Amino acid sequence: MTAFFDILIGGVFHAAVLFLVAAGLQLVFGVQKIVNLACGSFYALGAYFGITCVNWAIAGHSPQWLFLPVLIAAGIALGVIGPFIEALLRTIYDRDESFQLLLTFALVLIFQDVLRFFWGANPQQLGNLSMSYGKIEIGALSVPTYNALVIAASVMIATGIGAFLQRTRYGRILRATAENREMSEALGVNVRWVYACVFTLGTVLGTVGGALVVPTAAASLDMPVELVVEAFAVVVIGGLGSMRGALAGALIVGLMRAAAIVFYAELEILAIYLVVIVVLIARPAGLFGKAVE
Amino acid sequence: MRHPVTAPGRTENRHSVLIETIGVTKAYGSFVALDGVSLSIAQNELVSIVGPNGAGKTTLVNVLTGLLKPTAGVVRFKNEDIAGIGPVLLAKRGMARAFQLVHVFPGMTVAETIAVAVVSQMRRSFDFLAAIRSDSGVRARVQEVAAIFRLDGKLDTEARLLSQGEKKLLDIASAFALAPEVILLDEPTSGVSTGDKHGIMRTLVDAARSAGIKAIILVEHDMDLVAEYSSRIVALKGGKVLADLPPDAFFSDPEIAEAVVGKLFGQSKAAH
Amino acid sequence: MISAVDRKMTRYVPLALLALALAALPAVAQPYYITLVLPAFAYGIALLGFNLLFGYAGLLSFGHALFVAIGAYCAAVLSSKLGVRSFEAILIVSGLAAVVVAIPVGMLAVRYVRIFFGILTLAFGMLFHSFLFKFYDLTGGDTGIRVLRPTLLGTAFSDLDKTSFLIGPFYYYCMGLLILLGLTMWRIVQSPFGLHLAAIRENPRKAEYLGVRVRLFRLVAFVISAFYCAIGGAILAINTGQADPELAYWTHSGELVFMTVLGGFANFFGPLVGAFAFIFLKSELMSTTQYWRFFLGVTLALIVILFPRGLMGLAERVRSTWAGRRT
Hints:
The complex is a heterotrimer.
Chain A: H1 2-32, H2 39-59, H3 67-77, H4 81-90, H5 97-119, E1 135-138, E2 141-144, H6 145-167, H7 169-179, H8 181-186, H9 191-213, H10 223-238, H11 243-263, H12 268-282
Helix pairs in contact in A: 1-6, 1-9, 1-10, 1-11, 2-3, 2-5, 2-9, 2-10, 3-9, 4-9, 6-7, 10-11, 10-12, 11-12
Chain B: E1 5-6, E2 17-28, E3 31-42, E4 46-50, H1 57-64, E5 72-77, E6 80-81, H2 86-93, E7 95-98, H3 110-121, H4 136-148, H5 164-176, E8 182-186, H6 194-211, E9 215-219, H7 223-229, E10 232-237, E11 240-245, H8 247-252, H9 254-271
Helix pairs in contact in B: 3-4, 3-5
Chain C: H1 12-28, H2 31-56, H3 65-81, H4 87-109, H5 114-134, H6 136-139, E1 145-146, H7 162-190, H8 192-202, H9 204-209, H10 214-240, E2 242-243, H11 250-263, H12 270-288, H13 292-306, H14 310-326
Antiparallel strand pairs in C: 1-2
Helix pairs in contact in C: 2-7, 2-10, 2-11, 2-12, 3-4, 3-10, 4-10, 8-10, 11-12, 11-14, 12-13
């Protein structure tokens, strides 16, 4: 029973982090119709930079328990690159989607060596820092507090984004621009500003996701390209452009992964893709997406 | 509501009927777009479908061209059911459609565009290794069709470089190149200046005759054109057929003139 | 975009000269450079197929490395596990295997267009990668499977060492393959089928109204492109002597697109130019700096932003400015 619970928590934790990245992807796609292949690169950047910041903090004699806020701050700080990258992508907004995919692929290649330049080729990690938060005991079951905090944070962010999009004026502007860019412009919306903000928000979601994962996993140069694979599985299952889809997809992928590790390790990522294919045959638009052809 | 008015003594030679709808109804939930529409189009007819916006013209056209399946009723082309068969099968069975909004292949030349239809009509789509450029049969046919529409001087011009009017002609020309038996023209003169409208209609009707097209369905707002070229006018209102008459009878019926033509005439007169 | 009117007799002369130059290469150049030309041949063939789908049919696949890997693994399994050493047999089996896989994958994938097609093909590519990676007993896991030297038209060339074989008979054989498959692809794009593919790319709805079966044609283009990629994969595998799972990784698919766009997707010869240019660029960069990915990425970004029609597009611009100046 405890084993099952541990796996469940592990899966939900993984889902929580995946959700952040997928939410970033969905937001950017929903508003700007750009699929960002470099989402994994942002994630990895968040991971590496998070480690660096925590190490600085520790060297600066900050108390260990501050590492979670430090990680989140590191992720948010990286948001500064958002506007620059968006400006780069802006040069090809009017072009065919293939070019957008290619430009983000170019970013993947570029970031690969940027990461290598600043942090070297060896994986980096934070040791057992996550354990310093201890565990939460619920009867016979225990959850590492760190994992619980991250899951809670992810849920809060999900609710926050949902509320933001549905209830605030700015959220409405965002959704309007996503539906119809020209009309929004005609109504006086500064679309360029909206795009820059959305992209930065999407970037931050990715970098924070990466920062939050490093206490439990190492940051490596494989991260950028591997994450894309999982993130895309999430958005395909959930439906491109849908926040609810990101949530559902992330949960499915996270839990499936956890289950597969237990039952048949060989099948791990294969299982995820099989689900992708089954979902696509049954519901081509994903669980929450809109029709495609 | 009034019963649909048909001309007394109109011959309906079953053998020459090409398209017919019998009691076609199309409902979207509680909204009824078409209500029991029955009409038939026979050889050598040019039937115009008129009516105000929202009358159901587009829905009827989509049913006639196999894009929409009626909720009730039958739609037949050459005695075969065509409900919802889709554009590809429709083209293969011999009906072509040209749209109000111009559809071209931007990067392809006039010759290539027409060739697409010619090759499709010749059933040679799966010819993998024949060299199309040097195929004299295809080239001759492309030349022929282009000449009808006076596009033969621009065979090697890319479609996106053509004027709006030329693009329209190309769109229609490619539909003609399918050698269809029936062609449906959706507002072919929209966007064309008044002076040119008659010229274009004349070209289209002559082209149809020389291309061996057996019937034309026309959707038009311009009542002058409708009056001049139709052999029969079908007026829709609120999803029902209000009138189905030859032009003389259509325009001389005072009730129709008030209910349908008055409005349209007023509109078209005001617009021009 | 591509005009199906890629005539110009003036191309035949430079082509013939190029073919002669390539044929003479083994005699005059250093073995190092010749060993680069072999992957260029392989990718050239693969990209000829890829561009049928991308440049002509307008579908961007981010998973075609899957078929390259199929070709490579067929070569590996046949030569080292089943003892089949005939290159002809390897080519046929690779091609058939790719076709067999491409039909169901394609049937699912062509239900989508544009970005969705790209993501779905990426997913399939990675599915295959994880299969290759995980099923150690079947596929050799992350090390892959060895590829043994095949016989060419029945001849073993056992008196030649590996390098001599590769830069000698194998080089000419692959060049011959490239020419043969190139001519076939030329005929395909000039045919009625090619014309219809272009129509589907330009305006799928209108193509339907002209009687073109859009999904079916896209599927056929998909399958043909898979075949070509597998042939390329088989050549690659024999060149390196190993088939490994990374051949199927999505970034490898990305490289295929990179090469195509580098050379110019709107031109029949673009992909070939792109294959050669990319291989040489990558090799030069790799020997100069450890941050070669960065420079490759910058190159791709520059092409996408400034030179979307690639090297051939640039050449055409130069040629037309030159022609304009002369008239």
